[in-house]
UniProtKB/TrEMBL annotation:
The lineage of its organism: Bacteria, Bacillati, Bacillota, Bacilli, Bacillales. One of its GO terms (cellular component) is cytoplasm. Keywords: Cytoplasm, Histidine metabolism, Lyase, NAD. This is Urocanate hydratase. It comes from Viridibacillus arenosi FSL R5-213. Residues 8-134 form the Urocanase N-terminal domain.
Length: 554
């Protein structure tokens, strides 16, 4: 078994090893999640986001692969927190895989109970795209991060161009590692504080970060020089945010934007406490988990207090989706929620029109297939300047990780039109193998997360998780290739419920029928969720695009 797990690479090309392209796609995407180029810690099956895993253990991984290889075209494999538990006869049009990860009955939904179950090997943490096999590396969050910076720029300075501006943030792991490149793409100088030097080195190797600094003076000097020249660039500074943010503040430096994307959602296996070295922290995590957690939460409180001070001093400060405000509040920072989350601050209008982090991957493994889909997107959406610029920038700046893929925030109406054309390109042989379409669970109509995606909803429905459940149900009914329902992604146990779907365009008529159902209902749920909550843009979009809502009040 040991050898199975080393250097996993998804097979590429047009040769099938399973009994159909949907099973093949699920297998390749699971393997791709664990490709060392893609995953943060593949030896432990960890893909990103603290301990977000693709399968419960190596035995489960091997059995999932085995089951997918044998799975018939009218069967469905059930996966419970990363373990394959059953295969049932369904329909050809049904999903081939149904996944439920990390779900706990609400009164038990906390890290303590989760870790008890994990210790007994009864559960794993699926994060969002880790356990649902549609992670595509740092690119998956790149455009969303770029959009957040650009929207923040528009709000504060009235311009999307952040030249000469300074962004301060934390974390350079799986998703947070998109920040340095996204900040640079937006034109800014971005200083990212990361406690683990190896993570910065990896991002430099991957082309996501420009400079490594080991000393705050050196980093600040460099940032000032680059800002003076209006030169977009990224600097990774080795340090702990809980210390460094305060030191920067004490020197009287107020960055234009301050945020953070360390793994604060998990005080035990994510966030690193300050006043000790990284090695000491990792030792303490093992020897005294309770003390570790306490120290991590205290460090989060210091970290958030410094962010609040930056806000008072005039910086644009926002939470970047890791629940750090909640833990700081628990530790006595009463006004931790004085700065907003990034969704209500910048992203919600996009959710109202069904837009979100849509992505696709080429099962051929050939970048040419992605370049052809890029050209199609630019042609189909030529009047969307932002989208065209995005694809040009991504082609120049994003290095492939694992299977070639593209992230592109398409909305309702555009997703299915685009996928239908791609399906035709697969059918005609213009593309060498099928394309997999998917999205983050952080999408417009697939998540309930009161400290993140559904923070401050207009009608107060932040914690209503009927929506992601309906999303998974309708995508299952519509015949998505695989569907997942998770708990705790992004912000940790007890704080979110969310759903994912993936659809394979294999060039068949059946694929186009499924596209016409799933890629309409899935983003449609985003419009419905926000129209129901009373957002004018969503109501208008529902009316203009004939989204059928029996009780929509206008
Ligand atoms: P990760 O675990 O791969 O990386 C987190 C990084 O933070 C690690 O490199 C770690 O060394 C570093 N770190 C931890 N504590 C630190 C500290 N005190 N000071 C400096 N560095 C520290 O996780 P990830 O995939 O990068 O995700 C990070 C967080 O962002 C998670 O909480 C995740 O749930 C959240 N997230 C947000 C979004 C979004 O759109 N806003 C999307 C995905 C994930």
């Amino acid at each position: 078994m040991e050898n199975v797990m080393q250097n996993i690479k998804a097979p590429t090309g047009s040769e099938l090893t399973c009994k159909g392209w949907t099973q093949e796609a699920a297998m390749r995407m699971l393997m791709n999640n664990l490709d060392p180029e893609v995953a943060e810690n593949p030896d432990e099956l960890v893909v990103y986001g603290g301990i977000g895993k693709a399968a419960r253990n190596w035995e489960s991984y091997a059995q999932i692969i085995e089951s997918l290889k044998k799975l018939e075209n009218d069967e469905t494999l059930l996966v419970q927190s990363g373990k394959p538990v059953a295969v049932f006869r369904t329909y050809e049009h049904s999903p081939r895989v149904l996944i439920a990860n990390s779900n706990l009955v609400p009164a038990w939904a906390n890290w303590e109970h989760f870790y008890e179950l994990e210790d007994k090997d009864l559960m794993m943490y699926g994060q969002m795209t880790a356990g649902s096999w549609i992670y595509i590396g740092a690119q998956g969050i790149l455009q969303g991060t770029y959009l957040s910076f650009v929207e923040a720029g528009k709000k504060v300075f009235g311009t999307a161009d952040l030249k000469g501006k300074l962004i301060l943030t934390g974390g350079m792991g799986g998703m947070s590692g998109a920040q340095p490149l996204a900040g640079k793409m937006a034109g800014a100088v971005i200083l990212v504080v990361e406690v683990d030097k190896k993570r910065i080195e990896r991002k430099i190797k991957e082309g996501y970060c420009d400079y490594l600094a080991e000393d705050l003076d050196e980093a600040l000097k460099l940032a000032k020089q680059l800002q003076g020249k209006n030169e977009p660039a990224s600097i990774g500074l080795v340090g702990n945010c809980a210390d460094v943010y305060r030191e920067i503040f004490d020197r009287g430096i107020v960055p234009d934007f301050v945020t953070d994307q360390t793994s604060a959602h998990d005080p035990l296996n994510g966030y690193i406490p300050n006043n000790m070295t990284l090695d000491e922290a990792l030792q303490l995590r093992k020897s005294d988990p309770k003390k570790y957690e306490q120290k991590a939460k205290q460090a989060m409180a210091d970290h958030v207090q410094a962010m609040l001070d930056f806000q008072t001093a005039g910086a644009e400060v926002f939470d970047y989706g890791n629940n750090i405000r909640k833990y700081a509040q628990e530790m006595g920072v009463a006004n931790a929620f004085d700065f907003p989350g990034f969704v209500p601050a910048y992203i919600r209008p996009l959710f109202c029109v069904g837009k979100g982090p849509f992505r696709w991957a080429a099962l051929s493994g050939d970048p040419e297939d992605i370049y052809k889909t890029d050209a199609l997107a630019k042609e189909m959406f030529a009047d969307d300047e932002g989208l065209v610029n995005w694809i040009d920038m991504a082609q120049k700046m994003v290095k492939w990780q694992g299977l070639p893929a593209r992230i592109c925030w398409l909305g309702y109406g555009d997703r299915h039109r685009f996928a239908l054309k791609v399906n035709e390109m697969v059918a005609s042989g213009e593309l060498k193998a099928p394309i997999v379409f998917g999205r983050d669970h952080l999408d417009s109509g697939s998540v309930a997360s009161p400290n993140r995606e559904t923070e401050g909803m207009k009608d107060g429905s932040d914690a209503v998780s009927d929506w992601p459940i309906l999303n998974a149900l309708v995508n299952t009914a519509g015949g998505a290739s695989w569907v997942s329902v998770h708990h705790g992604g992004g912000v940790g146990m007890g704080y979110s419920q969310h759903a994912g779907q993936v659809l394979v365009a294999d060039g068949t008529e059946m694929a186009s029928e499924k596209i016409n159902r799933v890629l309409i209902s899935d983003p449609g749920m985003g419009i419905v969720r926000h129209a129901d909550a009373g957002y004018d843009i969503a109501i208008k979009t529902a009316q203009e695009k004939n989204v059928h809502m029996p009780m929509l009040k206008t």
